[in-house]
Amino acid sequence: MRVPMIAGNWKMNTTVSEAIELVNKMRQGLDEIANVDKVICPPFISLAAVGELIKGSSIKLGAQNIYFEEKGAYTGEISPPMLADLCEFVIIGHSERRHYFNESGEMVNKKIGAALKAGLKPILCIGERLEENEAGRAEEVITEQLRLSLAEIDYIGSMTIAYEPVWAIGTGKAATGGQSNGTIGLIRRNISELYDREIAQGLRILYGGSVTADNIAEFIQQPEIDGALVGGASLKADQFVSIVRQTSEIRGESDRGEAS
User: Fold this and answer.
1) What's the CATH number where 45 sits?
2) Domain of 20?
3) Residues labelled as active-site residues
4) pTM metric for this prediction
5) Confidence class of residue 169 from pLDDT cuts 50, 70 and 90?
6) What is the rounded distance in angstroms from the CA atom of residue 45 to the CA atom of residue 16?
7) Residue 197 has pLDDT above 60, yes or no
8) What is the pLDDT of residues 143-167, one digit of tens each?
9) Residues sharing a CB contact under 8 Å with residue 65, sequence separation 6 or more, in sequence order
10) What is the domain count for the chain?
11) What is the pLDDT of residue 167?
12) How far apart are CA 134 and CA 13, in angstroms?
């Protein structure tokens, strides 16, 4: 069985002191919830402080980006070995990185390879823009993103994929559970073709895009969806804890149903 994951992407929000305050508000609530992997991804400046704060807890730590070189004259960048000392996960290929910073599929591919080499666990983001969705090109775009991102990557067992329709990120307009489940099923079929069925069935695939405590149940009830990459709601302790709690309750009921 795939253990569900709820990952919070804080984006460019919170100072160090604000990050500490936010973690203090959610730590106890998250620790009381079992059977869900809980990951928070604060800005780089807070990784060390948050890492110290969550030691001994059930919360795992991730970064929001990475560069693919180990060291060198790359002012402002953070290398895989630097992150490996601080966190376990790293978000790669988020649509905001692709759009605002012109990250290509080839660059995403280099970042994934470098992250895996350093022992980090990538959370690869893929998803179509609104015009691509409306033109009926979602399947084509997602398939191409996957193939470019994973080119010559031999093993992806430690990875997670997040399907984030770009038109739903930060807009308040989430895709439906059924739509997302169908697209994630497509992603899983692509992984099966690129690797094999066993890897595809074991790979966690999340939904992301305007996820809240009010709509998480719609997504986590779907058989192909293994959790969520949460944006704005992860900056609200009560919302994030509720999302994790609902995921544990719903998935626990689902697993018991399958077992019977």
Assistant:
1) 3.20.20.70
2) 5-259
3) 94, 164
4) 0.94
5) confident
6) 7
7) yes
8) 999 999 999 999 999 999 999 988 7
9) 78, 90, 91, 92, 94, 97
10) 1
11) 78
12) 31
